[in-house]
Amino acid sequence: MWLCCAGGPLHAQYNLLGSTTAIGGDCYRLTEDKGWQSGAVWYSDTLDITASFDIEFTMNFGNNDTDGADGMVFVMQTRGNNALGTRGHGLGFEDFKPSLGIEFDTHENRRESNDPGYDHIAVLRDGNINHSSPHNLAGPVRASRTSRNIEDGKDHLVRVVWTASQRTLDVYFDCEKRLSAQVDMQSIFGRQSRVWWGFTGGTGQLSNNQVVCLSRDIVVKDQYRGCKGEPVQLLARSSSNGVYKWSPAALLDNPTSQSPVARPTKDQVFTVEYLDRCNRPVRETVFVKVAAPFTVELGTDRVLCNRGSTTLAPVVSATSLSLDYRWSTGSTQPSLTTDTSGLYVLTVSAGACEAKDSVEVVFQSEADVRALPIIQNYCYTDQPLSLSASSAREVSEYYWSHSAQTDPSVWVNDPGTYELITTTESGCKFRETFIVKDDCYLSVWVPSAFSPNADGQNDVLRIGSSRPLELWWTIYDRWGSVIYHSQDMAAGWDGYYKGRLCPPGAYAWRAQYRLLGHRHDPYHTERGIVWIIR
After folding, report:
1. pLDDT digits 0-9 by tens, 507-519
2. Which of 58, 297, 376, 488 is the most exposed place for a label (fewest CB within 10 A)?
3. Do residues 376 and 447 make contact, with C-beta atoms less than 8 angstroms apart?
4. Alpha-carbon gap, residue 154 to 209, rounded angstroms
5. What confidence tens digit (pLDDT) does each residue in 198-217 have?
6. Cβ distance 415 to 423 under 8 Å?
7. φ, ψ of residue 188 in degrees (nearest 5)
8. How far is 108 from 93, CA to CA, in rounded Å?
9. pTM across the whole model
């Protein structure tokens, strides 16, 4: 049998058309007890007809028997989820082409449809409701085994089972199989494997309140794809007593839940036992196909000094898999060529696994001086200070604006703002700003760059202050996630996060501080950027 599983929220979404209204509890009134109405409710996602499915719902056909009409149809079609059919004896389904419909007809239209004299079920294609036509694939048969009439004001449990391998469509009504049909889906829908599905209803001169009730477990499948170690939420059918028993229990967060969460590390079969809505004991299985995770790398951020283009070619660890690429630009090609500055994000998918990376590209003309956020704060204590370039690029020229010096470092004797412009061998120009303060009793400073390459020089980033402080120091990556936090002035960040060395680039930091022991003083806040260089 089949189970449903989902990796996300278990909330179905539907599109309501025509006379259809939501009446609560996942129930939708397709028509009121009024003449000449047509309504439809379509599921927001398409259905894969190349795979088996098991759909269960309830239908209420109203309580007008002799003067009631006209019925409802379970429909699969390709016109989209905004389609609305004809009213009256067409049941909101007539003229849908291509389509497949399971008709639950409550009114005898002998002239138009060659209907029998009892409320009936039939399988029809292409919106043709005439039972004498070749479009009538199976039936009509009496809907209920025990009664000619289903317009009795009661909720009737309906189940539709499609077995793809056998091309068999079975229809159950009130827990009994009433119809079975051999269906060639390809002859109906051609090469289209996914179809829109939902329910239609109509009234004519006669009418009824016609309601269909759906649920979060309405679509049931027999297998699901997951990524190793990632959560997979399983979902069983509704039980008459709410009791479930899943196994293997050790692989589930709650083996007595209708929708437990599993985190399988390999292909796994799960089973569940429960009483179905017909009070029959059921033992069902679902197979979870688990894919191996992988990584994607776009390399470090790049600055290009001459106008032209650059090609972003990712390195993916899962080269043997069938990969799908999705760039933030909308491209689906493996590599991307661009001549525009910006942040480029690539998402690579393989089965249920997904990996993401990003790279910033900057195109800069030779005449530009890019005001990068490289700002260094220093504390002046009446002693000469040495200011040094922190650029990790191959610099061919240094220029200090305040003194016209061309050395990589200078000594200063006064507070103030000092600017250094560096020119790389490829012609790019960059600006660094050094702020020297004389009100240091409540200031902190952080170098603008460091190089955690284990060479013994500038391997650790530390925050400095001339006074002992109560401190909260946090460092973030480009997406705003915290990758380092400390309250210790003596501690430092070694450039690692979760055991891996962070890639070169810019990282934001924030420091909140006050004088140590001054518990009633407000916190001061400073922010800045630090660069990891290699």
Report:
1. 999 999 888 877 8
2. 488
3. yes
4. 11
5. 999 999 999 999 999 987 66
6. no
7. -85, -50
8. 16
9. 0.56
